[in-house]
């Protein structure tokens, strides 16, 4: 999240029941925080694992699902070893925290001291107050970990169907370390954008804008899919795509609802606004498909759902319900326009092979949501979230116009940092292993890359090979099972 910096100090664990449930522990908030974290984790595993594995061509199902699975596991280890402190620890630079482990096994953690990045007025009052979550540090580390993990998985959506898996294995920890942590610290962990008053309630910039820009940039350096795959890339299972999308949608209750760091009124409002915006955006995208293409598209509806979820994320607990509807209308139409119209006419977008259109669904929708948050952020809710004096959206007058400017500048920082750092990382990785798969792997797919296939079906140009496929062909005209063999239909 989002809210004021979290800077805990240790409280020794004594090994008895009273110490394991100390007086300061808010068990309700702790339960909601762990539930929220798990919901966000389920968005990735199995949510995006299923979505990626089913929305791509059959020959890439295993590879696409595995890219997501690997990223989740790699981020967990990197996060607790050094990256959490870089995002939420003590300041090293105005945009970066000091690296260090978050592996304490013998301590519970509680907010007790002002972070060193806290700003004061001349009269001693606090300009940007600290958060006071009364639960173990482990809950906070895990909650923030699943946000970091899903960012890398969203980024992977731009690279499916051709990135060398070994290059991806190197890319994940490098990008987490040198890109994600910078955005997280700058906007959430007490960095310069946080203290300046840029609002990013739950990751419209830190997660979605960064993954969309970084994914597009990495797609440029990795190169395109094979010509055949770019020309035709049908989902191998639309129903499973909907299952993955459903997990993504329902998991967003934890994504946005957990960000007040407590089970309060704001968390309830954030969950409701999230669903309002997502539903509105899905409907608008579907109506536009019907109006202009004469048919409602299931994949289009999923895209509209995602853009709605992304757009509301930076302002979920900061705007009122009527604003969530307006944001849903815009998130269902503006990314639709950039994907369906602008993309087909802009040479740069045509040259870069962004497999799942992450640039449109996350970068465009994330930046849109951030700017709209600067327009619609309600003053009292803004004060609960970010107590920088007179923070408010543009429609509420006063200094509201300045907030829009802050949102634009914050977005430009995230865009610029990701363009530069993602490029450097890709060039470094390319010195060690090729970023793109060799042509023979691109032709065959999963079986060549992993020695595994998602479905025991002969399609997509495959030919039956008795030495490879044994007795389990569905082509009964070419192969008859021997006595006692199971017929696969």
Automatic annotation (TrEMBL):
Its membrane topology: Multi-pass membrane protein
Major site of localization recorded for this protein: membrane
PROSITE patterns attached to this UniProt entry: AMMONIUM_TRANSP
InterPro entries found in the cross-reference section: Ammonium/urea_transptr (IPR029020), Ammonium_transpt (IPR001905), Ammonium_transpt_CS (IPR018047), NH4_transpt_AmtB-like_dom (IPR024041)
Transmembrane region(s): 31-53, 65-84, 140-160, 172-193, 205-223, 235-255, 267-286, 298-316, 322-343, 355-377, 408-433
Residue ranges of every copy of the Ammonium transporter AmtB-like domain listed in the record: 31-455
Sequence segments annotated as region (Disordered): 469-489
An example Gene Ontology molecular-function term: ammonium channel activity
Any one GO CC term of the record: plasma membrane
Top-level taxon: Eukaryota
Positions with biased composition (Basic and acidic residues): 469-478
Pfam families per the UniProt record, alphabetical: Ammonium_transp
Keywords: Ammonia transport, Membrane, Transmembrane, Transmembrane helix, Transport
Localization per record: Cell membrane
Family designation: Belongs to the ammonia transporter channel (TC 1.A.11.2) family.
Name of the protein in question: Ammonium transporter
